[in-house]
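Handout, section B. The chain below has 437 residues.
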Amino acid sequence: MCYPPERGPFSINILKYRKYQLCALYCIYSESQATLKSRLEELKCHFTWGLQEKDADIEELEERLNNQLEYLNVDSKGRVYNLLAYVKHLKNNNTEAIVNLQKAEAILWDSKVVETDMKYLMTFSNYAWVYYYLNDSESSKLYVEKMNTIYMQSKGLEDLVQSDTYGEQGWALVNFCGQYYEKAKDCFEEALKANPDDPEWNTGLATVVYRLEEFRGRNWPSFKSFSFQLLERAVKLNPKESVIKALFALKLQELKKQEEAMKYIKGEGKDALELTPDLPYVLRYVAKFYRRAGMFEEAIAVLKKAVSITPTSGFLHHQLGLCYRQMLKQRNRTGRGDKSGQDTQKIKDLMENSIFHFEMVLEVKKAFLHAHFDLADMYVRSNQSKKAEETYKKVTELTTISEYEKQQAHLEYGTFLENCKKSEDESVDQYKEGLRI
């Protein structure tokens, strides 16, 4: 029978030495990882731009980005793939993140962009971060070195590199969530300092300022005029960009320039619809234009076409809900109701259609603040006060909206409690909650 040899002092010392070696290697590895992360934190990309998971509905964002891939042009798809890679990382799926980055890189390759071009910086930065989280330090370092090579090749072009970086950050912030619009505006303004005539960054600035005006203009109408010159300039610099033309038409419409506005929607030249007749982003703004002009049937026809392309678009369903509600209001205002069975059915259909589409919005875009308000309003109109109150309660509990929006939620809920429920004490509580924010 064989027995293992007794462990003498020498064998114990060997074990201690091996343990020391392992500890030393671990310390070196930890130090190396810390150094690598420090280098990564200096990169300018989605991982360092402050895109917080808590500020967005990640599932809705992912679905929206996937929808965009169906109809955006090739150049814009690279930007979407990069943001999708970051979303996949937030969902702890770094392998899928790599797949999306490979698709973004392939777009550049197919466009014959050499690997040392600054256009690769964002994708390579994201690669470096994802490989770091995959514990593949060598691959992460490889991409850091690739970026260093690009910076070396771009000497003398530092201003353009910075401009490009700020511009990409601006679009990432715009696409991530509405809370970041102010930051996005600042980024586009920085991007334009070094490259004031860049069509892409001018379009980005005009778009985000327009959206900020739409948001704030509900309460401060005087705020809604700043984007006019920005949109006009963006259209001149980017004459083939149909979305910016549609936004400019909406702005002209707001300024009571209906005839001029219509030329950008459906004119004889290169109008928005002619440029991209099947682009959902254009269709939704064209429909909004028609709705504001009181052309409800035309708006609904355009929206139904857009919904057939992107059936889960919260914006499209919201616009449909607004169309049906305005048709209902118009019917009541003009006194067309003859109280006949046919008229009663028409009113009922308009109500049900409006409610259906507002409910659809909140199925796919839970943080769409004004869709909550619009749905609650329709519940009140259809004598469903209990559902209206439940809707207001839900909106006050949202966590992915800005502080300003939270104040709006408490104000709207308080107004409902005061005017519809006739509960002064409860309404005062809501007003106080809003003031505390």
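Note. The chain has 21 helices and no strands. Compare this with the example in section A.
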